[in-house]
Amino acid sequence: MEHKIGNNDHIKTLNITSNASGAVRAARDGNVVVIVDIIDMSTSAEAALDAGAVDIFAASPDNILAPVKVNPEKIGYFAGKTALKHSSELLIVTEPRLEDKEEQRKNIQQALSGVRRAGVDVLDIIPNLGTEVVKLADFSEKVVLLVTQTGGVAFDAAYNYGAPAVTTGTVVRTLAKKGIKPAQESAARAVRLALKYNTGITLVAASSNSYEDILAAEQIAKMIINTGFLSSDGNILSDY
């Protein structure tokens, strides 16, 4: 599923697609990529940002048969280097959702290898619970690495195929934001990145089989339009 909103000027394009393959196409087009995986990767990311996380990365778990290239070791490395840059600690959010650290650790060995290569220790490994994730750890001033099957794979693919920036988006309320605020902030973050890198935006529903991700991507697209991103009058983000 893919459609475009806007004109043919690359800077003013807003696209909606799905799956890791769609994330790859968006990266190759040079767009800022927004991964929408509301149950629960992108909602966990939003909750972490609300709680003061300084940066968010996401990667594929081990042994995923993705139709595109992924490199979780590379993303783990850059997450670790970002933690060093900010003199920060690093938290990993992953699956299964049960707090079984041994099982969780089994699935993230490649990402952990990258973190170790960067010279950083992992503060904690916690389950991917969406809004509730912030009840399990202190995210303030932390770098967060989400290693998850759907959203993590799409993020990993976009990152490794050269997107200028990869971020996340959700419509699910968090402990800090209710109503339309999560979607508004997701839209505003995407627009800020697109303006920074002088690019278009592609929203990626993490799975084409997830109707909630598709609907959420469409809602965030409407919010991006409301920022004025596709307009030519320069009045962008005036109400955000």
TrEMBL record:
Name used for this protein in its record: 2-phosphosulfolactate phosphatase
Taxonomy, superkingdom: Bacteria
